[in-house]
Known about the structure:
Blueprint: E1 8-19, E2 35-39, E3 42-44, H1 53-67, H2 75-78, E4 81-83, E5 92-104, H3 105-108, H4 115-120
Antiparallel strand pairs: 1-2, 1-5, 2-3, 4-5
Organism: Cylindrobasidium torrendii FP15055 ss-10
InterPro entries: CHP04076
Protein name: TIGR04076 family protein
Amino acid sequence: MAAPPDDTFQLFDLRVEAICPSDTPIMCRAKPGDHFTLQGEMLYLPPGQGFSLYSLGAVLPLLAAKQRVTHPNDWMSTDALIACPDPNCKSKLKIIRTGIRTFSHGQTTLTPLNIRERTEE
């Protein structure tokens, strides 16, 4: 009997930190050290800390791509600073890959993994 196919994949854990210059007003109300982490699909904030909805909206579209392994020359591998969406705010968000985690396809979706279709393409 054949062994079941390997259905694992890897994603980076991420930490997104607010970078706040001290010589200018910070319009998104971020403070130095404010951050959140992303582990798989789960976003975690430290207890008692908020995060601007608009800042979150600016960085969310990039997070799924930053979680994936990319070619070293791909800009997604090298660029990590995201500007605050308020044009009058000089803060930035820094996306940091902190570790890598292995997931199972079968534990993340009910859609079956069809190995046969993938090998016929």
